[in-house]
Design a protein that fits this description.
By secondary structure, the chain is mainly α. Helix content is about 85%, strand content about 0%. It is built from two helices and no strands. Helix 1 runs antiparallel to helix 2.
Length: about 55
């Protein structure tokens, strides 16, 4: 797994955890964390697929 894909995966997992905590506290800020998780998930897939093509 390329390094950037690993970093994107870590950001995705942390954003999901932050979204769960935000929604558990009743805050609507969790929506922003869900969007960040989606973006970082797409970045992770992109870097994984790009790594498979180049290697």
């Amino acid at each position: 797994m390329p390094r950037l894909a690993l970093y994107a995966l870590i950001v995705c997992l942390l954003a999901i955890a932050a979204a769960v905590v935000s929604f558990a506290q009743g805050s609507w800020l969790g929506i922003v964390w869900v969007l960040i998780a989606g973006l970082s998930s797409n970045m992770c897939w992109y870097y994984v697929k790009r790594g498979k093509v180049t290697s």
